[in-house]
Structures are given as C-alpha cells and as structure tokens.
Amino acid sequence: MANGAWPPGRGSGAEGRGGPGGQTGEAGDSSEGSEVAMRIWVTRTAPGNQVTATRLKELGHEVVDVPVLDVCGIETEPLRTLPDAIVFTSGNGVRHHPLSAELLDVPVFTVGDATGEIAARAGYRDVRSAQGDIVDLQRLILKELPRPSRLVHFGGRDVAGQLTRFMRNFGYLVDRRIVYAAEAVAVRWLLEVRSDLASIDGIVVHSPRAAERVARVLTGTWWKGKVWCISQACALKLTGVRGISLHFTARPSDAALIEMVRQDGLLRTATRASIRLLPAGIDCPPQVGEILNLKATDVR
C-alpha cells in the first residue's frame, strides 16, 4: 500500500487547503484560465501510482493515493530458445519477466512509450513502441515482423484484448507467459476511501480491472464527482454508475490522462485538450455520448 497510512492524501497535497474536497475559498476565486485545485483519488497500482500522484501534486491538486489492485510476480520457466521478438503490454510485464543477457538483442514490441522506456532501461537494445493501444500494437507487429515469426508475450494473468489469438490467426507463433497478477487490495482500504468520498472531487483510473473495483466502491453512494479514465475500455466499466461525470483519453497514456485532468481543472475558457464525456448509467456505446467541442492536443 502506497504511503502506508490513513487518512491518505492528508498533508501530502497542495498546501493551505482545507474543508470538503480539499479546496479553500481562494481556489474558487481563481482568475480566468487558472486551475481549480481538487482532491483526487489515484487508483493506479504501484509503482506507477507514485508517478501519477507526483504529476497531480505538481498541478496543485491534493492526492488520495490508494491503489485498488496490488501486483504480484509469478515465476515462469526460462525460455529454451530465443524468440524472434518479445512483446510487452505493460510495464509490469517488463518488471516481472525472467530477464537474461541473451534476450537483450531480441527485438521488443511494446504497446506504448512508457512500457518501451521501461524495457529500454532494463537493457533491451531494439525497442519499438506502438504508441497506442493493443490494436496499434497488432498493426505494428504485422508491419515489421514477417510470418511465421515466433513471439513471446510476457504479460499478466488477466489481459485486455485478444493479442495472442489475433496474432495466431495471422500466422504467428505466440508463446504467452504469465509473469504477474493484479490482486484486489484489502477491503478495509477501499472502505476507508468510500467513507471519505464526500471530500474527494475526482478519481483517475488506469485499467479496466481497476475500473471494476472503483465501480463497486461507488455503487450506492450517490457520489457525483469526476472520473478520468485512461481508455475507452476502462470507461465502459463505469457507465453503470449513476451520477458521475465520466471522461476518457483519446490515446491511452498517463501523460494524456494528466493533461485531461489539467484541462478539466481550468475554468471553462481557453481549454484545448480533447475530452469525451460518457453519460453515466447507460449501456449504449460511447460514441453516442456528448463530445465537447475542444481541440485535441498531442500530450505524449
């Protein structure tokens, strides 16, 4: 558990704020174009939660740093032969896979830049980022790797998308290795957050599984704050929660998520980031939701 103490966020956010929502009268008197300070629950797993929390604090927000999932490594047998390429769909896959010197020259394909940077820091010399989501990753592999190449995907026990099946359908040989699992944190931590929801203005969510846990916490509370999601798949897990203001990024990255929060924290003038709003409590696809008339900004 990040920070290891309750109440989370107390004394770790912006200075000089108090009262419900972590805001003072000064925040409400901000001049045009300035940011409104908020108290935000960061649900991301460690160690990435610390990065997100730091970025939000730099924007002047107070952070409630309580992950809803805890990542645990799972041992897997070493590879007997070198693959033609390695695939990582998360930083946790890089952190928990069995690294060896023989693998460092094997081409690595990653779903996004953040995972690519972690792979490069681990020592991999040929890292290629899809700069997007699973679909972008599939396209990149199809473009750059001939069939029937052998791929090894180091990932989690529960994965979003159908990467393995998709690549096999296109003639690739895929060895999926489970190297970590995301387990639910102790219920007492979530109950503490639930009891403190009245003072929380917004929530940031980084995965569909985390979104499922957040939905359980919010159900029946009538909380009416903002939830910013890293992807459409993540946001769809929360459409059944009534009363919330639900948003997701156009491109799945922590930088895009933070930028969306930043723009949402500005007074409604001179905003530039792309924010898509899903009416909560509906089962229809997100494209029928309200699209705010804002210009998209590349924040990668």
Provide a quick synopsis of the model.
Helices cover 28% and strands 20% of the residues. The chain has 300 residues and is α/β, with parallel strands linked by helices.
- Measured distance between first and last alpha carbons: 28 Å
Query: How many domains make up the 3D coordinates?
Result: 2
The largest β sheet comes out as:
7 strands, mixed
Global morphology: elongated
Q: Which runs of at least 5 residues are low in confidence (pLDDT < 50)? A: 1-33, 267-300
Structural class comes to alpha/beta
Order of helices and strands: HEHEEEHEHEHEHEHEHEHEHEE
**Mean pLDDT over all positions:** 81
Briefly, what CATH class of the largest domain? Alpha Beta
Please give the CATH architecture of the largest domain: 3-Layer(aba) Sandwich
User: How many runs of DSSP E, i.e. beta strands?
Assistant: 13
Strand order of the largest sheet: 2-1-9-10-11-12-13
CATH T-level fold name of the largest domain = Rossmann fold
Continuous helix count: 10
Fraction in helix: 25-40%
Structure, explained:
With 300 residues, this protein is α/β, with parallel strands linked by helices. It has 10 helices and 13 strands. The strands form 2 sheets. It has a 7-stranded mixed beta sheet with strand order 2-1-9-10-11-12-13, sandwiched between helices. Strands 3-8-7-4-5-6 form a 6-stranded mixed beta sheet, sandwiched between helices. It is elongated.
